[in-house]
Amino acid sequence: MAIRFNPAVSLSREPLRVALLGLGEAGAAFGADLVAAGAVTAGWDPEPSRSVSGLRRAASSHDAVAGAELVLSLNAGTVAVAVAEAAAPALSPGCLYADLNTSGVGVKRQVAATVGAAGAAFADVALLAPVPGRGVRTPSLASGDGAERYGATLRSFGAEVGVVGPEPGAAAARKLLRSVFMKGLAAAVLESLAAAEAAGAADWLRAEIVSTLRDGDESLVDRLVHGSAQHAARRVAEMEAAAELLRELGTPPLVAEAAAEILRGLLLS
């Protein structure tokens, strides 16, 4: 279902001037929503085929950011600093530069320093959900000297933005900490299902995983944390046996062996 905006509610009296640096999947989704909301939106992407209906396709990053009140960088962490360096000379004094790329804390600090030297405020933005289907309303965390301003602006479009402090990199750090859990969980699911497929028990294990996740609450987290410490010795032996089984089934026990190593560490603490 398409997201509908009321420009009279979501924008100030003068339409917000926004620049998008990156028009891939995320940038295009943000761009479409901003255009629908009545924002004066320009976008730039090195891939010439990328565009958004109603968005002014800028000739360069300089062209895109010139005169913008809000600049949204939606590229990749690997190019975030280079994109900021290329755009910085054309940033308007006092504009807000928001880096929405997933990257390390050090990268966020470099971007903040680069745009700060050009007189722009900075928001380190960590997107907390997939952008497709959510667009500009994708929930996020923000930090940096421009975080409060970013939060107020994006909330006017219906987004959930949690501000976590003035330090660039604070939002990125929280997302990466969350990623240890989310991507670690994904790795555990993938490894266990691969082994279960080889053992002819994939349907059963999938149902077990779904049931555990569906019924999970705070007590499950407590059981995982405190139970691991209390029963570390027994669980080390259990995971060593699990790793041996996975090797027999032809599945590399990367997660199983890592779990055993973490449990061994609990024995020493």
Question: By helix and strand content, what is the structural category?
Answer: alpha/beta
- Spatially, the strands of the biggest sheet line up as 3-2-1-4-5-6-7-8
CATH first level of the largest domain: Alpha Beta
Q: Kindly estimate the percentage of residues that lie in beta strands according to DSSP.
A: 5-15%
Let me know the CATH homologous superfamily of the largest domain.
Answer: NAD(P)-binding Rossmann-like Domain
- Spatial separation of the terminal alpha carbons: 52 Å
The CATH architecture designation of the largest domain is 3-Layer(aba) Sandwich
Q: Helix-strand pattern, N to C? A: HEHEEHEHEHEEHEHHHHH
Major β-sheet annotation: 8 strands, mixed
Domains (count) = 2
CATH topology of the largest domain, by name, is: Rossmann fold
The low-confidence runs, each spanning 5 or more residues with pLDDT under 50, are 1-12
Mean model confidence by pLDDT:
93
SSE layout and pairing:
Layout lengths: L6 H4 L6 E5 L3 H12 L3 E5 L11 E2 L3 H5 L4 E4 L6 H8 L8 E4 L5 H13 L3 E7 L12 E4 L3 H9 L5 E3 L6 H30 L2 H14 L2 H13 L1 H17 L5 H15 L1
Parallel strand pairs: 1-2, 1-4, 2-3, 4-5, 5-6, 7-8
Antiparallel strand pairs: 6-7
Write up this protein.
The protein has 269 residues and is α/β, with parallel strands linked by helices. Helices cover 52% and strands 13% of the residues. It contains eleven helices and eight strands. Helix 2 links the parallel strand 1 (17-21) and strand 2 (40-44). Residues 1-12 have low confidence and may be disordered.
